[in-house]
């Protein structure tokens, strides 16, 4: 499985987990926490997806922009949906803008050049999801939660998860495959003129 596919699947699985938590705790989430969560998730999913679509659909900026904007907007919309209409608007617009910027980045750089940016965004995405999961539990809920679940919410467990994502990302190969992923060729808009 290519590095791009692995990152897509990681973003989707982490998003489904977080979306399920938001849906389950929708009654206890404060409005400001919900708005920040929808904006952050929409933005980070939009940036990562836009960059990945830009790398996949190299040279077709309109297609990668549409896919990136759609992914970011859908991510922000779905996280905000169980909370409030204002949260839906905030998350959707944040995802739209980030998807557009990510697609432009992905279209302008090679896969090797995208590696440090993708690493930073994936680590930031993971850290934000772990942090926001901790926000969404009120003091009353914490007292009612079992000791096993509280142990899983310990900061050391979050640090271990971040370390696992770090190790997984470092094990990925960003070398271009022969099936068409971009190599270190010049960008399409910098081609030599005759």
Characterization of the model:
The chain has 194 residues and is mostly helical. The protein has helices at 3-24, 31-56, 61-80, 85-108, 111-135, 139-144, 147-152, 155-171. Helix 1 packs antiparallel against helix 2 (31-56), helix 2 (31-56) packs antiparallel against helix 3 (61-80) and helix 3 (61-80) runs antiparallel to helix 4 (85-108). The longest helix is centred in the N-terminal third of the chain and has 26 residues, at 31-56. The N and C termini lie far apart (39 Å).
Structure keywords:
mainly alpha; 8 helices; 75% helix; 194 residues; single chain
TL;DR of this structure?
This protein is mainly alpha-helical and 194 residues long. The protein has helices at 3-24, 31-56, 61-80, 85-108, 111-135, 139-144, 147-152, 155-171.
Which percent bin holds the helix content?
Answer: over 70%
| Oligomeric state, counting identical vs distinct chains | single chain
Radius of gyration: 18 Å
Total strand count, please? Answer: 0
Head-to-tail CA distance between termini: 39 Å
The helix/strand class is mainly alpha
- Residue-averaged pLDDT: 77
**Which percent range describes the beta-strand content?**
under 5%
Topology:
Layout: H1 3-24, H2 31-56, H3 61-80, H4 85-108, H5 111-135, H6 139-144, H7 147-152, H8 155-171
């Amino acid at each position: 499985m290519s590095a791009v596919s692995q990152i897509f699947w990681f973003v989707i699985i982490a998003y489904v987990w977080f979306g399920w938590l938001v849906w389950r705790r929708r009654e206890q989430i404060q409005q400001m926490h919900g708005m920040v969560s929808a904006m952050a998730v929409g933005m980070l999913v939009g940036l990562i997806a836009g960059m990945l679509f830009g790398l996949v659909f190299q040279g077709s900026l309109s297609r990668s922009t549409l896919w990136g904007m759609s992914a970011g907007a859908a991510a922000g919309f779905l996280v905000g949906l169980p909370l409030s209409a204002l949260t839906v608007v905030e998350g959707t617009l944040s995802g739209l803008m980030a998807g557009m910027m990510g697609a432009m980045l992905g279209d302008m750089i090679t896969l090797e050049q995208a590696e440090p940016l993708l690493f930073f965004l994936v680590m930031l995405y993971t850290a934000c999801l772990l942090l926001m999961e901790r926000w969404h539990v009120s003091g009353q809920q914490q007292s009612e939660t079992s000791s096993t679940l509280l142990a899983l919410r310990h900061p050391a467990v979050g640090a271990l998860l971040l370390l696992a994502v770090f190790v997984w990302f470092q094990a990925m190969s960003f070398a271009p495959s022969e099936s068409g992923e971009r190599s270190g060729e010049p960008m399409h808009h910098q081609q030599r003129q005759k």
